[in-house]
Write a structure and sequence with these properties.
511 residues; alpha+beta; elongated; four-stranded antiparallel sheet
Length: 511
């Protein structure tokens, strides 16, 4: 079964490569036609006054080189009963120009139309490439475990039930379950949450996230085609399929507009000609009217504008799923934001260091940082970073015990040190009732040999542009709201600093 699936995957890959090669050949052919057509057109103009016959042959050759596909498409659409589109308008206008011997103008219209189309294709492909590059997190290879041996295989060949080795710093390649190992998983590439999540045996992990601290053995639950990284890519790739309202309106508009324009053009050609007898002038006028009235620019510009907008957004890290999402921005009445990593930087920093009794600030920080020197928790890391900033000398503990959800108990030269939340100190009968803080953020208490030494306030910091961005939103009459899993005091303090109107704190992910 594995071999059969592997063969199918290879066939799919080969098919995709063939499609890409076909697209490249198509683009090359399009450019050759435009260059050849332009060359023949220029030759026709240069020979127009001296060698009229040669000039006409060059114009006809240029027209057929540039317009054969449009004429063919118009012919096929007429056979299917769908004659009233831009291909039909272009064909009738340019053939009409030939009928009144305005060869240069007929070829000129076709040439500029083809050049416009070429630039549209280039812009769309460039935008599509930018978007795909921005969100493509699919792995090329994975580390497959056979007992204690590691085999590097293509990611598409990994099957459900395979055991993969994910080293520190590696991206989780496929959705699965951790069989052994413990680590902190950076889910920011998928969920946007900047604080790494603790994960261990039995926990589910999704592809695209980064393993930051420990080696993991992961059992594959979904193949590459069904994993999160592929689903993200597919949702973006299919974004163009969701036509915005204005796009659908233009398509409907063209169905009514085109026949109306054709009838007016026929009236312009026939009625004044019957009265004046000057058929050539009025047919030429009608053809000019047809070319001017052709909605090609309108039909092409709308999807091109949306696609370019989506591409420009992806450069700034903004992912629009399609034109609809881009268009409805004008109807937005309120903006709901996450706190961590959106309004704030998502990196914890020591805001205050408050010693008790005879303890000094630097001494308190040195003890706390020494305790946390082996920790991988973001709060612990922030304490160590603050100590490094202040050039505080650290003592590494001889023994460390991490108590999940509470903090650390460590053995150091000065004795037993507790570093963690209120619950940890209360569990060890250390009195912290007197320590009441109005500061927002996470409080990390430090006790030495059963006596409180002080506490540190750790908090996320506001992004530099948060205040100005929220002020601009309010200026446009938008309501601002913030959602967070943090405590009410921390949430209110950040909201007040940033200028957010509504706050919803202590929320679980599903809330």
């Amino acid at each position: 079964v594995k071999r059969k699936v592997s063969v199918n995957k290879k066939e799919e890959k080969k098919k995709r490569e063939q499609e890409q090669q076909e697209k490249k050949r198509e683009q090359k052919r399009e450019r050759i036609e435009i260059v050849a057509g332009a060359g023949l057109f220029l030759g026709g103009i240069l020979l127009k006054d001296k060698y009229e016959l040669f000039s006409t042959i060059l114009f006809v050759s240029s027209y057929l080189t540039l317009g054969w596909e449009i004429l063919l498409t118009a012919g096929k659409n007429i056979c299917k009963g769908r004659m009233l589109d831009e291909n039909f308008l272009m064909s009738i206008a340019t053939l009409g120009a030939f009928a009144v011997q305005e060869y240069a103008e007929a070829v000129g219209v076709m040439l500029f139309y083809r050049i416009g189309e070429m630039f549209e294709h280039i812009a769309v492909e460039k935008s599509r490439g930018q978007i795909m590059d921005a969100v493509d997190m699919r792995p090329e290879v994975v580390n497959l475990l056979h007992g204690d041996e590691v085999e590097v295989i293509p990611a598409e060949e990994a099957q459900i039930g395979d055991i993969l080795l994910v080293r520190v710093g590696d991206r989780i390649p496929l959705d699965g379950v951790i069989l052994s190992g413990e680590s902190r998983i950076d889910t920011a590439p998928v969920t946007g949450e900047p604080v790494p999540v603790k994960a261990g045996e039995g926990d589910r992990v999704i592809s695209g996230c980064v393993n930051t601290s420990g080696m993991l053995k992961v059992r594959v639950e979904k193949t590459l085609g069904d994993s999160m990284v592929t689903r993200i890519l597919q949702s973006v790739e299919n974004a163009a399929a969701s036509k915005p309202k204005i796009d659908r309106f233009i398509t409907r508009f063209a169905r009514v507009y085109t026949p109306f324009v054709v009838i007016l053009a026929l009236g312009t050609a026939i009625i004044p000609s019957l009265i004046t007898g000057d058929w050539k002038f009025w047919i030429y006028t009608a053809i000019t009217f047809l070319v001017i009235s052709c909605p090609c620019a309108l039909v092409l510009s709308v999807p091109l504008a949306f696609f370019s907008g989506i591409g420009a957004g992806s450069k700034k890290g903004i992912l629009f799923k399609g034109g609809i999402a881009l268009e409805v921005l004008k109807e937005v009445k309120a903006v709901v934001m996450d706190k961590t990593g959106t309004i704030t930087k998502g990196n914890f920093e020591v805001q205050k260091c408050i010693p008790v009794g005879a303890w000094k600030e630097e001494e308190l920080l040195a003890v706390a940082a020494g305790c946390e020197s082996t920790s991988t928790h973001p709060i612990g890391n922030s304490i160590v970073e603050e100590a490094k900033k202040r050039f505080v000398e650290l003592e590494h503990p001889s023994k460390v015990e991490e108590l999940s959800g509470k903090g650390i108990r460590a053995q150091m030269k000065i004795g037993e040190v507790l570093c963690g939340n209120r619950a940890l100190l209360e569990m060890h009968h250390v009195n912290v009732q007197m320590m009441e803080s109005n500061d927002y953020g996470t409080e990390v208490f430090v006790a030495v040999n059963g006596e409180l030494a002080g506490y540190l306030v750790i908090a996320d910091t506001l992004k530099e542009d948060s205040v100005s961005a929220i002020r601009k939103m309010k200026k446009y009459g938008l309501r601002t709201a913030m959602l967070t899993g943090d405590a009410r005091t921390s949430a209110d303090a950040i909201a007040k600093k940033a200028g957010v109107e509504e706050v919803y704190a202590q929320l679980l992910p599903e809330d």
